[in-house]
Design goal:
Blueprint: E1 2-4, H1 18-21, H2 23-34, E2 42-43, H3 50-56, H4 59-67, H5 72-75, H6 84-107, E3 109-112, H7 133-143, E4 150-154, H8 161-166, E5 173-180, E6 193-197, H9 203-221, E7 225-229, H10 247-263, E8 268-271, H11 280-298
Parallel strand pairs: 1-2, 1-3, 3-8, 4-5, 4-7, 5-6, 7-8
Length: 300
């Protein structure tokens, strides 16, 4: 199993965003220390080419990102102050998901330590997302004839609003988002399937919804490729999540999703998405459980 990771996932970030993003260094470090993965499984993506970016994003928006000409008003919803390093970070993350998609076609699964930038729209960024890596990678597969029907499973606690909007009129990509009903973004877009979750939902309630939904969804959509956003901001410890999942419940979620995908014989890309528990060790361990589950299920 190949895993996308690059130092630029964290180092360009403004100081005030470093704490929640330090996980991007700690996740591979912990997995290597435990012997779950080997150094040969890690790869460093190059920047994504403009042609791939422009399949998902408008020329006007991309040129503003590239040329650092976003206005203060356009920057504000992203949570970032624009910089060349941040733009570089986003295009490397996007290429990481493209590369993972191609590796998944060979190996069954590949994982991006970052990724899941699902709040980025075609023409703007939001919520710490500047470019939508799943959209860019999915459209890369479709353009090159490497997939015909794609399913995006977004289980981050925040709705994948940018992804839903980008694919609103693209029948070859089915978007499924299971997210906090009363959480960011407060104006929701319309995914192909949205399941809004009440505040305080626990393991049993969450997993019951997922168990009842995902197998039927695979049978109905009949994808030949899956992107899975495995945000751990569903944890009860998360500062912003509003749900009450335990680490065991979060792992059960990942195991079920990954086993269902594997049993269906579908290639899969996994990106980590959000996680904002006050103790970074809780975030890192929850993300590492996703990697551990994938390694076990695919037998690497």
């Amino acid at each position: 199993m190949k895993i996308a990771f690059d130092a630029c996932y964290i180092h360009p970030l403004p100081q005030e965003h470093r704490f929640p993003m330090v996980k991007y260094e700690l996740i591979p470090a912990q997995l290597l220390r435990e012997g779950v993965i080997s150094p040969s499984q890690l790869f460093h993506p190059a920047p994504a080419p403009e042609a791939d970016i422009l399949r998902a994003h408008t020329v006007t928006y991309w040129h503003k990102l590239r040329d650092q000409t976003l206005t203060p008003r356009e920057q504000r919803p992203t949570g970032f102050v624009q910089s060349p390093a941040l733009t570089h970070r986003e295009i490397v993350i996007a290429q990481g998901s493209i590369d993972c998609a191609r590796f998944a076609l060979q190996d069954g699964i590949a994982m991006n330590v970052a990724g899941g930038t699902h709040h980025a729209f075609a023409d703007r960024g939001e919520g710490f997302c500047l470019l939508n890596d799943f959209a860019i990678a999915a459209l890369h597969l479709l353009h090159h004839g490497l997939a015909k029907q794609i399913l995006v499973i977004d289980l981050d606690v925040h709705q994948g609003n940018g992804t839903a909007a980008i694919f609103a009129h693209e029948p070859r990509v089915f978007t499924f988002s299971m997210h906090g009903q009363h959480n960011y973004p407060f104006h929701k877009e319309t995914s192909d399937l949205d399941i809004p979750l009440p505040d305080g939902l626990d393991d049993a309630g969450y997993l019951r919804l997922l168990y009842d939904t995902l197998p039927h969804l695979l049978a109905t959509v009949r994808p030949d490729f899956v992107f899975y956003l495995s945000g751990v901001d569903v944890l009860a410890t998360d500062r912003f999540g509003k749900l009450h999942l335990t680490p065991a419940g979060c792992r059960a979620r990942d195991v079920f999703v990954l086993e269902t995908i594997k049993c269906a014989g579908l290639p899969c890309v996994v990106a980590m998405g959000g996680g904002y528990s006050p103790l970074v060790k809780d975030v890192v361990n929850a993300h590492c459980e996703t990697f551990r589950a994938a390694m076990d299920i695919w037998g690497f």
